[in-house]
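Our consortium's second objective concerns turning raw sequence data into structural hypotheses that experimental partners can test. To show how far this objective has progressed, the report includes one record in full. It was chosen at random from the queue rather than selected for favorable results. The single chain below, 239 residues long, was entered without modification.
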Amino acid sequence: MDLKEKIIIVTGSSSGIGEAIAEKFGGEGAKVILCARRANLLMKNTERIKSKGGDAYYFQIDITNDNEVKNMIDSIMKSFGKIDILVNNAGVALGGNIDDFPMENFDNMMNLNLRGLYFITKLVVPIMKEQKSGAIINISSGSGVKENPSQSAYGASKAGVIKMGESIAEELKPFSVKVHTVCPGMVAVKNQYANLQKEKILQPSDIADTVVYLAKLPQRVNIPEVTIVPYYPINMIRK
């Protein structure tokens, strides 16, 4: 599928994986809508995409704020009249053993990782159903597939993303709307994994390449879920 002129929303695109996804789509000729909470980073990323010949716009929103999300979707539809792809990337990873993990952290993480994703998807689905086309690409995590110590809450939120995507996918098949879920393993993002050899860890660009590959699949091809893990085992990644 040619992505030129496609209207693509990427949540959580101020840094990390979301930033890389937005930049990759910009290079494909799409009209990329970046959204996140940090306006200064969104502006910087948007200008970088434009400087490379891409077409990008941004909205400063909190994905957990229903009114801000709705206003953004309304503005996009007013300006462009369609939404071709929604990339649900916004999320947070908070770890801790269950006996000392604050319930406030649990609630905040579920609100962002699950409810926020559900609400923006809920708004976009009727648009795609009417178009009888579109794709929703959810960024989950390897922790949603495999158990990890100290990540019971985070893993639960990301497993929820996987199951949510599976169910919504079945609802949308009659309308030719696809749902893909990407489950990355350890990704080298800023200020994390200082004790590891980052060149041996997944890079945000690796996830971006996968997302764009899914977006470009012909309608006859469906890949419901992709798990991406580093080639090297952890004992070979430690410095």
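The partners drew two points from this record. Helices lie at 16-27, 39-51, 66-80, 103-131, 152-172, 204-215, 234-237. The chain has one domain: 7-237. Both points have been shared with the crystallography group to help prioritize constructs.
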